[in-house]
């Protein structure tokens, strides 16, 4: 029985294998058909895309020059943007440095405020025992006194400068007048010498003048005598 059943079993197994292979083949055929459908759709899409690409290439050919122009403009714009970016970064760096400086200054001021906080307590005590009602009034009074002190020092400095300028002018005037006095003294000495020389020269001339007067008197007397004699002779 085993020998008679073995071919039948094998046949049944072959049938099962054939059925399985048929089903697998049908599945593969269905998959192939579906794939062919997909390939066909893709082929149509490819043709459509090829047509679109051709149209796009034609359009691209027309706008290529415009794209070059736009590209140049874009490069210029990018260059300007890069310059503005560099400028902004520089400004940002400067602002960061200023901010850091302000923070340091704020920290120093905070330290000073903390250091000088005892003076606020002192001013509060001053307000309590003085005629002032607020600390700000004390500060205003102090600033007024400081300003008056500065004005006084400035006035003293200006007065000192004016005094020094007046002293310099006085020294210059004194030196000028002393030089003029010395010149006048020298001229007076010269005039005195000339006067003495003139007086020494007057005496001989006075003597000569007296002689001339005596001679003239004698000549006049002689002339009168001659006139009288001529008149007598004429009579």
From TrEMBL:
<dbReference type="InterPro" id="IPR051147">
    <property type="entry name" value="CFAP_domain-containing"/>
</dbReference>
<feature type="coiled-coil region">
    <location>
        <begin position="72"/>
        <end position="112"/>
    </location>
</feature>
<dbReference type="InterPro" id="IPR025252">
    <property type="entry name" value="DUF4200"/>
</dbReference>
<dbReference type="Pfam" id="PF13863">
    <property type="entry name" value="DUF4200"/>
</dbReference>
<feature type="domain" description="DUF4200">
    <location>
        <begin position="11"/>
        <end position="128"/>
    </location>
</feature>
<dbReference type="GO" id="GO:0005856">
    <property type="term" value="C:cytoskeleton"/>
</dbReference>
<protein>
    <submittedName>
        <fullName>CCD42 protein</fullName>
    </submittedName>
</protein>
<dbReference type="GO" id="GO:0007286">
    <property type="term" value="P:spermatid development"/>
</dbReference>
<feature type="coiled-coil region">
    <location>
        <begin position="152"/>
        <end position="201"/>
    </location>
</feature>
<keyword id="KW-0175">Coiled coil</keyword>
